[in-house]
Amino acid sequence: MSALLEAEGLVKRFPVRDALGRRAGAVHAVDGVSLGVAQGEVLGIVGESGCGKSTLGRLLLNLITPDAGTVRFGGDDLTRLSASALRARRRDMQLIFQDPFASLDPRMTVEQAVAEPLRLHRIVPRAQERDRVAELLSRVGLRPELARRWPHEFSGGQRQRIAIARALASQPKLIIGDEPVSALDVSVQAQVVNLLSDLIRDLSLTFVLISHDLGVVRHVADRVAVMYLGRIVEQGPAEDVLSAPKHPYTRALLAAVPGHGAKAPPIEGDVPSPIAPPPGCRFHTRCPFAVERCRTDQPTLGDGLHRVACHLADSLPPPTPRPDRLAGGDRLRRLQSFFRAPGPLPGAQP
Ligand SMILES: Nc1ncnc2c1ncn2[C@@H]1O[C@H](COP(=O)(O)OP(=O)(O)OP(=O)(O)O)[C@@H](O)[C@H]1O
Signal sequence: where (predicted)? Predict the structure, then answer.
């Protein structure tokens, strides 16, 4: 499978300064990340707050410059393009932000906001702008008559739809959504997730979905990369990673999701400081299964679009099923022993 977007060994550190403004170290926000996204594929990037997801998203679009590593998009190394070549390439790569209240300019009507990329990248002649804006608004489920209104007249969900219409205007090949639904009310989140998955399917978009919400990622992603403290600890097909996780950190993340089927040992201790992250597998200081080798070896890289998993994966004990997800017979036996009932419980099927 050929990659539309491919990152190799990305590193980004942010300087940390002391009270006197002197440099006192660096936050290792992204530290040696390699990944690939195939044409038409949806890659979910998951991990706790502060693990480096947003920094990685910005590096992938070359909105910030990496300290090391490369990002290739459609064959071009973005880190080496001239400013004008990069501007032209931006047409193909769009970002949807988390906060729909901050991402739209309050001084622009909806029509102006959505038409701006049309004009910037000369997508349609001026005479056709209004029709194209109307088309884009309908595509995201908004009535075209709303085009003359101002952002403050809309709800959070509607604003995010406008931001999505704006992102679609330049007919991009790749969209990165950085927590695109997490600022929305729960009732609206599902509608916007459904809209995104319809657009991804209908327009054959290549999409990188950054989210701390595994439920959202499960709904949309073909492949999943799990980040911890600036590194990817597991990466692979969504079905494998989310149903049969091969890294103890992924197991723990999944076990924390209400209603998920497997139990994992609780994670002890705090996330180490990103100023002095542990060597080897980033998770080894908190991992209940860690052995000596984990202090020096990173999770192993496999084939394909940079598969990654714990090098102990084959020897890890299988996750134990949760009592609330036991098969019907097992649950009944558990209830019977709890109530010390000798026979079937009242109302239970024989
Ligand atoms: N501009 C910056 N200057 C200094 N440190 C930064 C900067 N941006 C991010 N960081 C630090 O880099 C690390 C990764 O941050 P990042 O925002 O990428 O994580 P995240 O997983 O997206 O978290 P969240 O979901 O909370 O946004 C954090 O420790 C953060 O404090």
Answer: none
Joined tokens for residue 155 = 């709800």
Is pLDDT of 336 > 70? no
Q: How confident is the model at residue 32 (pLDDT cuts 50, 70, 90)?
A: very high
Q: How buried is residue 296: exposed, middle or buried, by Cβ count under 10 Å (0-12/13-18/19+)?
A: exposed
Q: Answer yes or no: is the C-beta of 205 below 6 A from any ligand 1 atom.
A: no
Ligand 1: does its nearest atom lie under 6 Å from the Cβ of 29? yes
Beta strands (DSSP E) in the chain are 3-17, 23-38, 42-46, 68-73, 76-77, 93-96, 174-178, 206-211, 223-228, 231-237, 262-263, 300-301, 308-309, 320-321
- Is the Cβ atom of 54 under 6 angstroms away from ligand 1? yes
Closest atom of ligand 1 relative to the 178 alpha carbon: 22
Name 56's bridge partners: none
| Residue 27 Cβ < 6 Å to ligand 1 | yes
CA neighbor of 262 nearest in space, from 284, 240, 245:
245
Tell how far the Cα of 12 is from the centroid of ligand 1, in angstroms.
Answer: 10
Q: What is the ipTM of this complex?
A: 0.97
CATH code 3.40.50.300 region(s) in the chain: 1-92+198-318
pLDDT at 334 exceeding the cut of 70: no
**Residue 306: closest CA among 254, 244, 210, 231:** 231
Question: Which CATH number is associated with domain 1-92+198-318?
Answer: 3.40.50.300
| CA–CA dist 339, 341 (Å, integer) | 5
Over 60: is that where the pLDDT of 313 sits? yes
Residue identifier of the C-alpha nearest atom 20 of ligand 1:
50
**pTM (2 d.p.):** 0.87
Is residue 158 exposed (0-12), middle (13-18) or buried (19+ Cβ within 10 Å)? buried
For residue 51, give the ligand 1 atom closest to its CA: 21
Q: Is the pLDDT of residue 257 over 50?
A: yes
DSSP conformational letter for 100? T
Q: What percent of the chain has pLDDT over 70?
A: 89
Name the amino acid, one letter, at 318: P
